[in-house]
Amino acid sequence: MGKVVLAYSGGLDTSVAIRWLQEQYGLEVVCLTVDLGANDRDLSTVRERALQIGARQALIVDAKDVFVRYFVWPALRAGAVYECKYPLATALGRPLIAKLLVDVARQEGATHVAHGCTGKGNDQVRFDVSVGALAPDLTVIAPIREWRMTRDEEIAYAQRHGIPVPATRESPYSTDQNLWGRSIEAGVLEDPDVEPPEDVYAWTVSPERAPDAPAVVEVEFERGIPVRLDGAALDGVALIGRLSELAGQHGVGRIDHVENRLVGIKSREIYEAPAAVVLHEAHRALEAMTLTRHQLRLKELVAQEYADLVYNGLWFSAAHQDLAAYIASVQRFVSGTVRLKLYKGTCRVVGRTSPVSLYRHELATYDRGDMFDSSAAVGFIALWGLPLRTQASAQLLRAGEELRGIMPPEITGES
Ligand code: ARG
Description:
Elements: E1 3-7, H1 12-25, E2 28-35, H2 43-53, E3 57-62, H3 64-78, H4 89-108, E4 112-114, H5 123-134, E5 139-141, H6 143-147, H7 151-160, E6 174-178, E7 181-185, E8 215-222, E9 225-229, E10 232-233, H8 236-249, E11 254-260, E12 266-272, H9 274-290, H10 293-311, H11 318-330, E13 336-343, E14 346-353, H12 361-364, H13 374-384, H14 386-399, H15 409-412
Parallel strand pairs: 1-2, 1-4, 2-3, 4-5
Antiparallel strand pairs: 6-7, 7-12, 8-9, 8-13, 9-10, 11-12, 13-14
The structure holds arginine (ARG).
């Protein structure tokens, strides 16, 4: 009998998938539940449910630390925020789950792996492409993409097979979460003109109800990686957990976005990512202080490339390795401390220091102690403006066109 390793969440879809894989494919099912710090269900209950439904084995793997060190921190250092909005929590989790599915498949001698993604989203792409890169010999099955059951048919199937259906009405939303953020879609959110009801949020209070007094928080980075929160050295998982709670209490981290999926659909997505929002803000401020303008320009381009690559499921690619090498290099002096103020849904940088800061008070000051040589500015301006003066005299002034299209017509005399 062949074996399949199923990424099991404990929800209705993947619970039904256990029986369905046995029936349709005649495979023995090994369930794998990866703990990425979602904290939304009791994992020993999840494990028991899998076994009760008929899984041959049910494994729980705690991957929180690896997730932070090898996925979340690299994405933070890279400034990876998809479409300037989405810090990529779900997208970063998928390649790690795919890798662990492959590991368990090897260990168990499985021929197949399976996941609970639908056929319309990005997640199926991320899983299938990642497994294809790591283990081209394994076959990926996506039961939900194949079975085409409606919700009611699925519940009927579950009842017929003695699969426990959650007694409480399941949330009207589709959610995915890990320690870096929550993704919420479907239900009323599918109307992009409807304000998300309060019940979509689980990690953040409404900014309107946030405390009247702001909180101030200090994050210290070493080479672009957060190492201290308010002076306390913390490992990544703890740091993110603590910051997430604090920022959430101040209503920071709610994101409402109409996003371009890889499969061509625009979809309305709600995210909650309090720690990610604060850390990206802080990290950007520190980069502004420790990188030159040339570095910042290229970094911004790379950040976008990096975000797209993560979003589009290309984690296990040589292109990623190339970008990662650049990121490691550009982050080597991004060290220092950033102070932020969290207040009613906003997060503002209010101070920063760095032992390798490029900010020089004696160059910037208008007060006593000014070391900037203003007389050198004259020669600089003469050369900086030289090409423009040349063009103006050779072309623009000569044709009387120096203001055309860039000043009001009543001034330029155009009709
Ligand atoms: N749109 C986001 C992404 O592509 C979130 C996906 C959420 N997944 C889910 N099963 N609800 O990364």
